[in-house]
Design goal:
Elements: H1 8-15, E1 18-20, H2 36-52, H3 55-73, E2 78-84, E3 96-102, E4 114-120, H4 125-145, E5 152-158, E6 162-169, E7 172-175, E8 180-181, H5 185-197
Parallel strand pairs: 1-7, 4-5
Antiparallel strand pairs: 2-3, 3-4, 5-6, 6-7, 6-8
Amino acid sequence: MSYSEFTIDDLKNRFQLEFIEDQKLFSKIVDYDVPDELTVILEKFIPLALAIDTEKARSEFIVAPIMAELKITLKEISLFSGIEFNIDKNLGLSGRCDFIISKSKEQYSLNAPILVMVEAKNDNIKSGIPQCGAEMVAAQRFNHEKNNSIRNIYGCVSTGTNWKFLKLTDTKFYIDTMEYYIQSPEKIMGILAAIAME
């Protein structure tokens, strides 16, 4: 089993997660000042990503530029894309992760604490929630093993155009009631920046 094979029931049964689905997690986030360069890139790349309409295209042409801009702006984080993140194969906590943000300046190796797991999906946010949730559990365990635990681990499932944020606090698994859209990148980046600075 790997992250991509998890279901909601697996998260509940294997890790005793309590799902909380009635909260706005980021209603008070300040908008991010999106650089003009990123705005231009997104205006050019979004139509191409939507025309190609694959998970890889959406990840490369929409999600990756946003994540890269965040890393360039926030010097105290590191960003990883497409790396193996094998924590416990017996529990299914293994596989490749689309994007990982760590609160560490070191870019050549993944260090604790991991803050955010971002999973890119082609067109179905709901189907990505269990996979991202399993990655968040793995991040929580990784941080604990490295004696660098933090209270909250965040996750995001994105189609590139739609973004749904998640939060794991101990065994409480929050699914934001809101979805955010690429037409408002200042909101999406504002949330990511707030998480990174928490």
